[in-house]
């Protein structure tokens, strides 16, 4: 793959609808071609430093990574930190955005990404928090080769879509996650219990946001390492 041709950074996917994505590709010389594409879906804090770091680490494994600007139809290129003011702004954006429009924009990004240099056409969708819910809803509606949800919120309210997913999926959640009640976590686990290649992983002592090393109050190294290994294993199997 000639990385000089790869569209690094922010790119417009659909100018008429103001759809944008932040893209990261494999490092030159590390891989002849990516094994597939990862659609990466943000928390309420936007395509911020944490999401860009995860995207870069996935690109180092040989994948094309496209980070959807989920809030883009409300406010473009949101990039928040973790102060109380940032949290309030993130929650306000979550209340204002349209999930249906976000899913439509995600699909436009995927169709665009499938034609990027070196793409093999395979796709995994990975999301966090609200992005974790969107990842599962996307996989239920569109063709995917794998879906990974990290502490996706309100998944228990979308069980019909959850059961409609026909690709391998993983749902990762901390046992100390106060945004996902234990009974809701159990509902999700029960819903996928009869599905082929579907797993719910819980992590003792882990809170909401445990996968994000930039959130010092939530990051859990042991949970991160276990979840990361499971995710990478799934991607390697699914995106060859």
Structural commentary:
The protein has 240 residues and is of the alpha/beta class. The protein has a single domain, classed as Alpha/Beta hydrolase fold, catalytic domain (Rossmann fold), CATH 3.40.50.1820. Helices cover 36% and strands 19% of the residues. It has seven helices and eight strands, in the order βββαβααβαβαβαβα. The protein has helices at residues 49-59, 84-96, 99-113, 130-141, 159-164, 182-192, 221-238; strands at 9-14, 19-24, 37-41, 64-68, 123-128, 146-150, 169-174, 198-203. It has an eight-stranded mixed β-sheet, sandwiched between helices. The radius of gyration is 17 Å and the shape is globular. The chain starts with 8 loop residues before the first strand and ends with a helix. The model is unreliable at 1-5 (pLDDT under 50). This is Dienelactone hydrolase family protein. Pfam families: DLH. Keywords: Hydrolase.
Name the descriptors.
240 residues, alpha/beta, Rossmann fold, 8-stranded mixed sheet, disordered N terminus
Tell me briefly what this model is.
The chain is α/β, with parallel strands linked by helices. The protein has helices at 49-59, 84-96, 99-113, 130-141, 159-164, 182-192, 221-238; strands at 9-14, 19-24, 37-41, 64-68, 123-128, 146-150, 169-174, 198-203.
């Amino acid at each position: 793959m000639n990385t000089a041709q790869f569209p690094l950074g922010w790119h417009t996917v659909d100018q008429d609808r103001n759809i944008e994505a932040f893209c990261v590709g494999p490092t030159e010389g590390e891989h002849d071609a990516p094994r597939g594409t990862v659609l990466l879906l943000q928390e309420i804090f936007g395509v911020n430093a944490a999401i860009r770091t995860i995207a870069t680490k996935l690109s180092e494994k040989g994948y094309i990574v496209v980070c959807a600007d989920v809030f883009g139809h409300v406010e473009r290129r949101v990039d928040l930190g973790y102060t109380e003011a940032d949290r309030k702004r993130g929650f306000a954006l979550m209340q204002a955005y349209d999930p249906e429009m976000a899913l439509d924009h995600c699909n436009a990004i995927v169709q665009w990404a499938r034609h990027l240099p070196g793409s093999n056409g395979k796709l995994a969708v990975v999301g966090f928090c609200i992005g974790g819910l969107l990842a599962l809803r996307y996989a239920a509606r569109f063709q995917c080769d794998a879906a990974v949800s990290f502490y996706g919120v309100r998944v228990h309210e979308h069980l019909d879509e959850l059961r409609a997913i026909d690709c391998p999926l993983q749902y990762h959640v901390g046992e100390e996650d106060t945004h996902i009640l234990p009974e809701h976590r159990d509902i999700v686990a029960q819903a996928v219990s009869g599905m082929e290649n579907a797993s719910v992983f819980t992590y003792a002592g882990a809170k909401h946001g445990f996968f994000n090393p930039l959130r010092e109050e939530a990051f859990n190294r042991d949970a991160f390492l276990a979840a990361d290994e499971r995710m990478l294993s799934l991607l390697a199997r699914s995106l060859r």
